[in-house]
Structures are given as structure tokens and as C-alpha cells.
Amino acid sequence: MSSRNCSKSIPSYGEEVIKIDNPAVLGMGQRFKFLTRDLALYGGAAAISKGFALITFPLLARHFSVAEYGVLDYFLVLAGFLATMAIFGQDSAVARFFYEYEETSERRQVISQSLVFQLTFLALFMAILWLGAEWLVSLLIEAPERLTFFRIVVLQLPFYLLINFSQNILKWTFSRARFLTMSLGFSTVHVSLLVIAVLIFDAGIRDVLLLSLMVSIVFGCLGLYFVRKWLVRPNDFRRLREMLPFAIPYGTICAIGTFSPAMERTLTNNLLGTEQLGLYAAAAKIAMIIMLIAGAFQTAWGPFSLSLYKQADAAQTYNWVLKLFTLCMCAFALILTLLAEPLICALATARYSGAVCAVFPLVMGLAIQAISWITEIGIGISKRSYLNLYSHTTFIVSTLVGIGLLAPTFGILGVGLGVLLGQAAKTLIASWLAQRAYPLPWHYTTVIGLVTSTLLSGLASTWLGHLFGPLVYHIGLIVGLFIILLLGWSVLLDETERVQILSFIRKR
Prior knowledge:
about 500 residues, two-stranded antiparallel ribbon, 2 strands
């Protein structure tokens, strides 16, 4: 099939025609190829962008003390939480309603009305944060200059919003070159300047936050320039009224999702102290490696899945993706756990070696979360976004209870286990609600079996390692990995799927 047939022209009298790629018109094999290509482009760019944080991790972990690094990580996580609060689900709403309209003029109104709303809401939100800063910081962790750190974070919010807004528009309109410029350019410039600031100017925590603010200003403005053709004066706010019922639950959900890392760190600091907070931050950075793959997948999966959900054979494609992605996530979770100790020592020195025990539960929790992005797609398709509130509330309650019960006994391992418990509970509830909202013929049994086997392998290896030492721990992980690969190939995938995968690999 020619590339001409892979795009959808949107005709409209008297206006510019914009062509957007459309995987819905492709066959099964071509869809898989389309997803693979966008996974490499969009997902690869997002993964590389997030991967730059791993470059700064050893730089910052070695430059600051363990406690200071914990404080810096805390305020960086807080910035992400406040930015998500400011956006409050509008990015999800634009993504969902973009495909509801066929004409370019309607899509421009969706985008523009959303941006006006986001900027108006942000102005009010920032005013509240700025005026109430002194009281709000009293709720945060104890740290020198925490009021200054908080206000720098608040000043970043409008530029975070513009960066997120423009990257999403570029992604959903398949503007690949500009998306790459925004995602890779931001990270490259940020990391380069950070290296200079730390190695040459001996930057402190405030300097690192100010540097992030300056880079955000530049790329926020650049992103707005890149999407200028999609921005028009709103004729009315009818599209916004349609989007708000969908966006508000997602805003709450996203806020809960980004609140969780801040909550985990606050509880770790309160229950275990600032030193353990630094160790937990190191474990979370190692666990973040799996999110490079998961985040890359999510970046490509969103536009791909929603663009073909109306097709009769969409469920077959979804199951294909679910099985392959689950196998990859489970295998990589064990591989990353196996490499956790040398990675931590290499990246952050042996001072952080106490973080190793928390890596598996954090990694497996993120793997389960990533798998649920597929199985809960029915909620997005049905537009019943409020259903996600139930699963995310379950996540917060389960995580709080898990950390509160386990951390005093098991230390940061208990924090990790609490997070894992919360992710597992959220995934089960979300997948069940999605199936009720928009039934799909999922192949659940083998997927659940593989995830459970991975959980048992990792937890058993951790327990045996605690009893008999690191050698038994590593042997257990290696054996578990071989079992998972064998089960994935022989049980998770059927004969037809195995043949098609081998055929695809041979052609490549």
C-alpha cells in the first residue's frame, strides 16, 4: 500500500487542507508496521528525552549528598504534580475529541478553545499558589530555602503547560520532525547546560531549579510557534463544554497519578528520614528505566489505538499488542532487577547501594501500570472517563495502607511493596470497569498468568536472597527470566501469532 493511502485528507471549502496519517485504513500487518514506526519515532524520542534524566542522575547524585539529592528530587517531582494539576486533563480531552471531528476548522476550534481554558485556569491556579506559598511550604518536607524552591517551581508552570500542549498537538497530528525537535531539543539543551552548571559553576539546588526554568521558557515559546497553524480565535466555547465532562475526571486522575510519587516521598521522609528518602529516589530512578520503554509505547499507542477503534478488527489488533507488550514488560522487569545493583553503584556510587532492595517492586509496579494502559482503553473509547476515578482512588488508598503497614518493618522495600500493591489493585479495577463500559474480547487468562509468574519469580528471589545471599538472589532472577520467556513464547502466543512474528522478523 502506498504512503498516499496511509494518510487522510480533510477537505474543507475555503481553508487549508491538512493531511494526517490514518492507520485505520491499513491491514493488520501494515498496522503493526505503522505502530512500530511510530514507536520508534514518537516513542523513541520520548524515551530518549526521559533517558536524559538518567544522565543527570549520576551527575547530581555524586554532586549532592544523599539527603540533598532527596530534597532536589522531591521538588522536581512536585513540579510535575503541579504542572499536571494546571493542565487538569485537557490534554486527554483534546486527544479524545480530536478524532470526533472530520473538518480541520472544527479540530482547530477544539485545540484553541482548550488552550484558552488552560491558560485562564492556570492564571488563577498560580495566583493561589503564589499568595499561599508560605502556608503551603509548611506542608512540604523540611529543607533550607524551601520557599524559594517552591516559587521557582510555580514560575515554571506556564511553560510546562505550553511544552506539554505543543508536544501533544504535534504528536496527535503526526508532525514528526517538530515533535522530535521539541522532545529531544529540550532534553539535550537542559542536560548540556546542567552539566556545565554543576561541573564548572558548582550549582546548588536553587541553581538547578532556575536552570530548568530558563530552558522551559525557551521551549515553551518554541512549541507555541510550532503549533501556531492550529490556533485560531475561538468562535464560541461549545467544544470546550463538550470536552469538560471528559477532561475533569481525567484531570483528577492525572493529578492523583502525579501526586503519588510526591506522596511516596513524603511518607518515606516522615517514616524513615531524609537519608532513606535519597535512597528511595535512587531506586525510583533505576525503576524509571522501564518507563523509557513503557512511555515510548504509550506515546505511540494513544493516537494509534483511538484512530482505529471503530474498525471491525480493532480487537484483534489490541490483543496482539497486549500479548507482545506484556511479554516485553515482564522480561524487562526481571532483567532490570538483575542489573540494579551494578547500575546503582556505577551511576550513583556505593553510597546508594541500599536502594537495590526496592527496585523490583517499583519496576514491577510500573510494568503492571503500563500493561493496564492497553486493557483499560474501553474507558477512553466510551468517554466514561469518570470510571478511572474509582481505580485511581483504589490506588491511592492501597498505596497509603501498604506503605504505612510495610515501611516501618521493611524500610524502603516496604515502600516499594506498597506501591506495587497499589498498582496491582488499580489495574484490576480499571480493567474490569473498562470491560463493563466497552466490552472487548481480551485474552486475559494467559496475560494474567504471565504477570503473576513474574511477580512470584521476583518476590521469591528477593526473599531467598535475603536468606542465603546475593548469589542465590541473582540465580533466582535468571531462572525466573528463562521461565517467563518460555511461558511467553509457548503459552501466551498461539501458533499463528508465533508464525507471524517470525515472518515479521525475517522480513526485517
